[in-house]
Specification:
The chain is mainly β and 282 residues long. The chain is built from one helix and 16 strands. 4% of the residues lie in helices and 68% in strands. The protein is globular and about 55 Å long. 24% of the residues are buried.
Amino acid sequence: MRYILVAMIMAIFLQGDEVKSSVTTSYEILDFKNSIQKNEGNRYSFGADIIVDASQYQLSYEKTITDTKKPPLTKDLQVSKLFAKYSYKLDNGVKVNFNHLNVLSDNIAITNHAKSYGIGLGYGFGKNYYVNFTQYYSDFRVFDVYQSDLKFDYKFALDDAKIKLTTIVKYLDLKDKNSNSFSKNADDDYVTLGLKLHTHYKDYHFGAGAFFGKRVFAVMNDGFKLQHHAMEFDKTYMVGVGKNIDDFMLMLKYVYQEATELPYKNDGVEVSNVVASLTYKF
């Protein structure tokens, strides 16, 4: 991880033919209904995205504080995570990516200090089509997860609107899940299908998406989310709107998910997230 941090800092000072940078900060409100463990929470995050010629360096840090039910828990949940990604685009349209995800601290779950690694290969077909396959390995300390992601993007223009449609298929294979009470109620494997839409019209952005099929302990958001708690998510729906203001972009997003808390076999949990983010491009 420290080598990725050093590389990102060095990239800021590199003199390349093309340098693009942005920083993003966000605030998120989480609400849990029908949960045995959680009431509500807040998440803070900060990230950077630096493009130098054919290289792209991405880094994100997040901190989550969740009010818990006592009992069964004895204290509130505090989690911090760090995500990093490096991508390199070759002249022939091929793009390689390397991911690292790290649960820096979790004061309750046995998956504290979990780590995940990913390596991927993408290819662009002209300006309209892009396909990427990324293989992840997640070490949750007492069990492992092998995850395969296949993503397909299709971009096109409709009058003055730029539109991107994305299809995602995720396959997760759990190893040694019966070795502990945290993951033993999970299935051996999962298949999840995701659909996303993003529209950019003048200074406005609109996004929507959904995931169908159960998943647990999954890497999400192109390697910038790691679900390390024993919650088996099912239906996921999301919608977002944004606006460019000079060099800034303000985005509001709402996410609704249904889940089962696996250790207690408690289904019918509803998780709602409201996210506000601000991005500065320079």
